[in-house]
Specification:
Largest sheet: 7 strands, mixed
Shape: elongated
Number of strands: 13
Number of helices: 13
Strand content: 15-25%
Structural class: alpha/beta
Order of helices and strands: HEHEHEHEEHEHEHEHEHEHHEEHHE
Radius of gyration: 23 Å
Distance between the termini: 75 Å
Length: 304
């Protein structure tokens, strides 16, 4: 009997040491059913699986499940952390969950999510990654234009620092609203090789984006978009995060929380990998040749 008890005790100690402790339940709250969000979740779950972290996932969708149902489940199960995917789900967690760590993924601007129990990975690619790639793909072009508002002045300052470091010439125009975009483009279009879009809903929405893309063809400058959606719509090139790897990053953060670290000590992260997309029709209209080596590297290429 003593031998059996001893073996059981040894098994429990070894199982905890190797990560095979009792299975934990983690709720994952999605903002919607976008493919990018599902890829983020896949990366998150795959990372935990590879680390032999035994977890059971309970999925919720903020566009389908009621807030009461989600919060009731969380109160009943008291999970070790909550994983949110997308801005809507993450804002919901910030407003309603204060006593459980929250890890977010695929959020465009995490500034509104600051809280002592919140950490995660945004989806905005660091500017230095974008500009380093631009320098590599278009080595003879150095003139960058940016139109921004008070809302994104912090991004403009970051772009300014990166341009100085990478030897780009920067021309910026701050505007208050979308209707000022035509004047801003008229002022800077003749001075730039590229227009670098920034995530600013005060400036960019469907009609203003359509105008920008038409102007880029008329005035012969390259639009650098924020995702393959913009490339497909007519931007010559865009950069976006690798959503699976972003999920891996969120999984790494979740593991740190499960091991006892605090969200406030971890902070927010940005994606470490970027995906490139090209629009070859736009390239042809601008009389720009993209080397085949870069086209082969791209995640998406639009040519029809």
């Amino acid at each position: 009997m003593k031998k059996i008890l001893f073996l059981v005790a040894v098994f429990l100690i070894l199982s905890r040491a190797s990560g095979f402790s009792e299975q934990r339940i983690i709720p994952v709250i999605f903002s919607s059913e976008l493919v990018a969000y599902n890829n983020t979740f896949d990366g998150f779950k795959n990372f935990l699986d590879e680390k032999n972290i035994s977890v059971q996932i309970s999925k919720f969708n903020i566009s389908k499940d009621t807030p009461d149902a989600i919060l009731s489940w969380i109160r009943k199960n008291n999970p070790p952390l909550v994983f949110t995917v997308g801005t809507r789900a993450s804002k919901f967690a910030k407003e309603n969950i204060t006593d459980i760590p929250v890890v977010f993924g695929a959020v465009l601007d995490p500034a509104e999510l600051k809280g002592v129990n919140i950490t995660g990975v945004s989806m905005d690619i660091p500017v230095d990654i974008n500009l380093t790639e631009i320098k590599r793909i278009f080595p003879g072009r150095r003139k960058i234009g940016v139109v921004y508002s008070q809302k994104t002045i912090h991004l403009y300052k970051e772009i300014q620092q990166c341009c100085e470091k990478l030897n780009f010439q920067l021309t910026g125009r701050m505007i208050k609203e979308e209707k000022e975009l035509p004047v801003a483009l008229k002022e800077i279009s003749w001075r730039i090789d590229f227009l670098l879009m920034v995530p600013d809903s005060d400036i960019y929405f469907p009609k203003s984006i359509e105008y920008l893309l038409l102007e880029s063809l008329r005035k012969r400058f390259i639009v650098i978009g924020m995702s393959s959606f913009y490339t497909k719509s007519g931007a010559l090139i865009s950069f976006e995060c690798d959503y699976r790897d972003l999920g891996n990053q969120a999984g790494e953060i979740a593991l740190r929380l499960l091991n006892g670290e605090r969200p406030a000590d971890i902070g927010f992260s940005r994606p470490r990998k970027a995906r490139t997309s090209f629009n070859l029709i736009t390239a042809e209209r601008l009389n720009i040749r993209i080397p085949q080596s870069f086209i082969k590297e791209a995640a998406d290429v639009f040519e029809e």
